[in-house]
Amino acid sequence: MTSAPKALVTGASGNIGSKLVRKLVQNGWQVFALSRFDSFSELSAVTTIKTDWDHGIEFDCPKVSHVFHLASQTSAYVARANVYQDAMTNVLGTISILESIRKAKINPHFIQAGSMTEFGLNDKLKLNETVPLNPSTFYD
To answer: Which of 7, 87, 99, 109 has a 20 to 30 Å separation from 62 between CA atoms?
Structure first.
């Protein structure tokens, strides 16, 4: 008997993160949800690690095989209005997660979500890894 695969999902209470957590659980995964909210109390396969990006991220990373990093500040307007805070949230927040992984002495697959805005204005109906990046705003 093999044990269930384990994943850490950051931004687990967000739109994409909450759907991913539920899909992983449906497929037999044990999930550690890094989130400011405990949105999964009804799911026994989910352990919520409560944290708030606005107040720094420090946590003991569980032994996982995958990290799905979906948490970020996503407003271009907020990014432009306060570049320092945007960098603190997105860049240093990501570094904090990577540091927690390093301290746990694990080497999980690390999947970081981007956004379609990285491709700029584009007339393609489908975007994938072969389409060149063409950021057109500060946030991109």
So the answer is: 87
Predicted model pTM: 0.83
d(CA 32, CA 91): 21
Q: Are 12 and 49 in contact (CB under 8 A)?
A: no
Dist CA 17 CA 65 (whole Å): 17
Q: Give buried/exposed letters for 48-72 (b at 16+ CB in 10 A, else e).
A: bbebebeeebebebbebebbbbbbb
Percentage, residues of the chain above pLDDT 70: 91
Residues 6+ away with beta carbon under 8 Å from 13: 33, 35, 36, 37, 39
